[in-house]
Amino acid sequence: MAHEKILTIEDDADFRSLLEETLRREGFTVLAAGAGAAGFELALAAAPQLIILDLGLPDIHGLDLCRKFREEPLTRATPLVMLSADGDEDSVVRGLELGADDFVVKPFRPAELGARLRTALRRAGRPAAEETAERIVADALVLDTVGREATLAGAPLLLTATEFRLLHLLTSNPGRVFTRDQILARVIAGGVVVGERNIDVHVRALRRKLGAFAERIETSRGVGYRFRETALPLVGSAPADPNLD
Ligand code: CA
């Protein structure tokens, strides 16, 4: 889809113009609001394909606005990307758990913002289909979700059931960051009481088995993990480093 309509909600006028200019150059049509209430009204009236939402707004907290967008039937499924300040990981985690799709840390690199938005738009265009796909292919990695087997460059990967579910969750939602809580709820077998940090242990074990391909499982510091859609690094995330996690 060409010229997707993107609504930006950001109170800082300078940053808002920079954002608008960046998005236009990336080929998007831009609508802008300088406060939460105006942004909400504009979203209902104009039905944008994606909403960029600053977490620090003057009239409503970005997280409350995020919740409102998710409760409102007209915007429930609209991709929502949060703008956050560096060091605001707790808010980002809460936003993702409220249903935001992604976040971008200010300041951002324009090309990376564009890539991040296109990923969110693509994902919105193929609702949940991939999680039920029988086969997921991500370059050299192939997951047979029926036989519950994975191969890397043709060689079988010996994964535990949890590692397979983790890899399946991440690869079936490329580019999407999952918080540890979200991973816990979707990957760890029901009834088992484990801490969030338990996820890190599984990620570490999985990365070891993936060898050089492990760099595609990216750590979003203080937030969670995502499977990188491309080999290019994305803004707002540190590259995966198996030794640090
Ligand atoms: Ca702000």
Which structural class should the secondary elements be placed in? alpha/beta
H/E element string?
EHEHEHEHEHEEEEHEHHEE
Distance between the termini: 38 Å
Fraction of residues in β-strands: 15-25%
User: Which regions have little confidence, pLDDT < 50, spanning 5+ residues?
Assistant: 234-245
Whole-number mean pLDDT: 87
Strand tally: 12
List the domain count as a whole number: 2
Continuous helix count: 8
Across the major sheet, the strand order is 2-1-3-4-5
Rg of Cα set: 18 Å
- Remind me, CATH topology of the largest domain? Rossmann fold
Q: What ligands are attached or bound here?
A: calcium ion
Biggest β-sheet: count, sense, barrel?
5 strands, parallel
Main features:
8 helices, 12 strands, 2 domains, disordered C terminus, elongated, alpha/beta, 245 residues, Rossmann fold, Arc Repressor Mutant, subunit A, four-stranded antiparallel β-sheet, five-stranded parallel β-sheet, binds calcium ion
